[in-house]
Design goal:
Layout: H1 2-23, E1 26-30, E2 44-47, E3 59-64, E4 67-76, E5 82-85, E6 102-110, H2 115-122, H3 124-137, H4 142-157, E7 161-162, H5 167-172
Parallel strand pairs: 1-7
Antiparallel strand pairs: 1-2, 2-6, 3-4, 3-6, 4-5
Length: 175
Amino acid sequence: MISRLLLGAAVSVIIFTIGIAGLGWKPYVVMSDSMAPSMHAGDLIFVDPHARTVSVYEIVTYTDRRGPITHRVISQASDGALTVKGDANAGPDPAAVDRASVVGPVRLILPRLGWPVMQVHTHPVKVAGGALLLALLLPGRRLLGLLMLGGLVAAVAMVPTTGATLLSAWTTAQP
């Protein structure tokens, strides 16, 4: 009974992943609460890089010198520049976002599914130590277990992340 449930869950995850990959959406893990309550740190989001338009009030991911950021569009200038704001921030981001910097709009939010990625990025030594301890404590085939856990941690670490600290903390760090 349990093996059928696990098999069904595994098949569902594989079909879901193939479907998302077929759409060409890019996964990101949210690393801050600047978009709360719409999304929180640890949420897995999918961004559509093939979208041709972006609307006001739509949540978008864009890149700047801090890396990928996911915020809501609050206005759009006639030249296409976007004013964006994190839902939890008091005011808009200080600089307008050029349309060429926009990766795309957020199409899907999966709450808390990015938590393992967030842990690897924020606590890499603890995660690696825990994985090593688990591999050493598991009976039999320790080398294979070490390799599998190491591969899993490395794969999780490669998932891209998005988000910045809350705007008030970011502006105080500016030169």
